[in-house]
Amino acid sequence: MRLKIRYMLLIGFLSPFILLSCKTTDTDTGIDSSLTGGGIPADLSGPADLASLDAITQARAKAEESRALAEYVNGEGYFPAEWEAAEDRYSAASARTANPETKADAYARVTEWNGIGAAYDAIYKKSAPQFAKEQEKALAAARDKAVTAGADTLMPDRLTQADALAASAKQKLAAGDIDGS
């Protein structure tokens, strides 16, 4: 039994990373079809099955990843009202510990978790540029301290590397690449 639980946890953890590489969306429902094995089943009658429960796990994992990114860029500080609304939805969804009884209920939870993830994604996208500007100011202050301490004469190559990296990050941010990829 323990091995089965570990296996399911491992599959649940790794599946979003594998499935997100071929993401598509079912436009009628808004459910991310990569999280539902290619879409919502035509027949939602009957009890929840392993596929529908796995879809919930994957949607929740994606939402939690989005939440972590939004938290990293201080989304709560920049957009407290949006953060609080997303947190309320997250808390309510997390409080549901019992498995859904029907496939329809399961896919409703998938939709709920996808909505929560989208809310955190929106916070991330709005917060990241502000966070980057704050980091740019901190970097400039650290560079000034390093130059004052003699880094420009003791390690000019490292300072040049750091300047090039900072310039690259600034260009990416100006181009709207908030992820830096």
Keywords:
elongated, mainly alpha, 181 residues
Low-confidence segments: 1-38
Class per helix and strand makeup: mainly alpha
N-to-C series of helices and strands:
HHHHHHH
Strand residue content: under 5%
How many extended strands? Answer: 0
**Averaging pLDDT over every residue, what do you get?**
78
Biggest sheet details:
none
Q: State the shape.
A: elongated
Distance between the termini: 42 Å
C-alpha Rg (nearest Å): 22 Å
- The percent range for helix content is over 70%
Characterise this structure.
Helices cover 72% and strands 0% of the residues. The chain is an all-alpha fold. The chain is elongated.
SSE topology:
Layout: H1 2-19, H2 50-72, H3 75-78, H4 80-95, H5 103-148, H6 151-154, H7 156-174
Task: Give a quick summary of the entry.
The protein is 72% helix and 0% strand.
